[in-house]
Write a structure and sequence with these properties.
Layout lengths: L1 H16 L4 H17 L4 H22 L4 E7 L2 E8 L2 H13 L5 E8 L5 H20 L8 E6 L2 E8 L1 H13 L5 E8 L2
Length: 191
């Protein structure tokens, strides 16, 4: 299911990639520089988060391939698992995988026991995430670069290093987007 989700995202991104070469490259370089400057995590922590996601995603795919639909998100060495698993035994094994992974320092399991999401459900989640991220980016009171957004079956998960006010505002913004069933805030507060 991880491959399916990545394929779906790639198909959605294709029109933007085909619009020309230099403009997007320049914009991407500018966005990348802004992201590094604005992100409150150290470069080492950002790298660790990417390694954590890569390691866990690979282990889960190798062991459970088509049995599960899991998304791994890491922010500041805190891991969030979302998605669907067929039973409690696999759910517990996934938790163990996370806890064995270094340098994970905290873990939130938001997986559900049910059949894997359909392509239609995944498509709705991808579209919903786009709407939430866009609304967060448009609000001047929220530094959206400090927030990682995941969506699973209409539930929005917000992670990041924010002030309490930013966290509250981000939660309200996400909850106001049509189609959002629930908002789960997994913030670390800097104040």
């Amino acid at each position: 299911m991880i491959k399916l989700r990545l394929l779906f995202l790639a198909v959605l991104a294709l029109p933007f990639m085909l619009q020309g070469c230099m403009g997007p490259a320049i914009v991407s370089a500018g966005v990348g520089a802004t992201m590094v400057h604005e992100d409150p995590r150290t470069a080492g922590t950002i790298f660790d988060d990417r390694v954590i996601v890569s390691k866990l995603s690979t282990r889960i795919k190798d062991k459970y391939a088509k049995q599960v639909n899991i998304t791994v998100t890491a922010y500041n060495n805190v891991v969030l698992l979302t998605g669907q698993v067929p039973n409690e035994t696999i759910k517990e094994d996934l938790a163990l995988m996370v806890l064995e992974t270094r340098p994970v320092r905290d873990f939130r399991d938001e997986t559900t026991i049910r059949e894997v999401a359909t392509i239609k459900e995944i498509g709705k989640d991808v579209a919903l995430k786009g709407k939430v991220v866009t609304q967060l980016a448009r609000n001047k009171d929220v530094r959206s670069i400090r927030i990682s957004t995941s969506v699973e079956l209409g539930v929005v998960y917000l992670m990041g290093l924010v002030t309490r006010e930013e966290g509250e505002t981000a939660g309200q913004i996400a909850a106001s987007v049509g189609g959002v069933e629930k908002v789960v805030k997994i913030f670390e507060y800097v104040d």
